[in-house]
Amino acid sequence: MKMALRWYGPGYDTVELKNIKQIPGIQGVVTSLMGKLPGEVWTDEDIAGIKAAAAESGLEILAFESINISDDIKIGTNKRDEHIANYIKSLEAAGKAGIKVICYNFMPVFDWTRTDLWREREDGSFTLAYNQDIIDQVNIDDLKESMEKMSGGHLLPGWEPERLERIRDLFAAYKDVTEEILFQNLVYFLNEIEAVCNKYDIKMAIHPDDPAWPIFGLPRIITNKEQIVRLLSTVDKPHNNLTFCSGSLGTNPANDMVDIIHAAKGRIPFAHLRNVRHNSATDFEESAHLSRDGSVDMFALIKALHDTGFEGIYRPDHGRMIWGEKALPGYGLYDRALGAAYMEGIWEALEKVGM
Length: 355
Ligand code: DNO
Hints:
By secondary structure, the chain is of the alpha/beta class. The chain has one domain: TIM Barrel (Alpha-Beta Barrel). It contains 14 helices and twelve strands. It has helices at 17-21, 44-56, 71-75, 80-96, 132-137, 143-150, 161-165, 167-173, 179-200, 225-234, 246-249, 257-263, 298-307, 334-353, and strands spanning 2-6, 26-31, 60-65, 101-105, 116-120, 126-131, 203-207, 240-245, 270-272, 276-280, 283-286, 313-315. The strands form two sheets. It has an eight-stranded parallel beta barrel with strand order 1-2-3-4-7-8-9-12. The protein has a four-stranded antiparallel β-sheet with strand order 5-6-11-10. β5 and β6 form a beta hairpin. α4 (80-96) runs parallel beside α9 (179-200), α12 (257-263) runs parallel beside α13 and α13 (298-307) packs across α14 (334-353). The longest helix is centred in the middle third of the chain and has 22 residues, at 179-200. The protein starts with a strand and ends with a helix. It binds D-mannose (DNO). The site of D-mannose has 12 residues, from β4.
């Protein structure tokens, strides 16, 4: 098992690699080329550049998170095959550079969604939160303005502003895309990239939808055990895997995440671990990693990973803003470092007690 932290790359992240390196147990970073639009090719030079930037601080890139999938691929437009051909070139470049785990998601239009990026908690820390009632009031026609207002003018890291600009067209393009069509388009994509993944032993690791239910009337297909098992068994190949994310699957209290880890045994090369506190049926916030601060039993999840022989990369995922830190929402240094130490502590105890 290798502990990693997400790093957004030069010019995007406020957290310095030299500080990441000082977190006990950190063995590398997961990163992305933030300047690339989904559908564009990642070249050998691009990847060499970001690898060199990490290497300067003595850190290895353990995975790419994410090489994003274009909406054309998700919708299945006439540009899909061109974008898949580009994706294959990016995978070729990643494979040649020795990067073998690729995280991606298949959420239409949006990546992870929150309604509040700076909710103050009782202890004075700030965290990311989601309230369904707010989402339900958003008018799609002025989504960009609503989103900006909700998040105090900040867009979530990882969201591409270009998408928000053409939001109406995108919603129109998804009009006839049902869950089943989206699923079949995902299967098509996975089959098309199989050869290049096999060539380099690349593990594609789909990230669950966050929150784990459809929003804005758009379909979402990786939200629970049944859907995950269906995907893993439909494309039952070594390149088709899951990024287990407790923060995403944990948004729905009905998800039994220990059971999901067991159901996906051997197919989890990457895990995102963080805790969520459910305040009501329609509201949750991201708590500290500690089990007793949230609604998720983090020990049970790490034990399930341990029990199933997890050997992948794991990261503490989001953290709160503590000690006055200002950083990309969810991606400060301090609370993620506390999360990393907590996870390492649990893992060490599991190893030593032999549970
Ligand atoms: C949130 C992240 C996601 C994740 C993508 C994967 O912090 O876990 O943005 O990177 O969904 O494509």
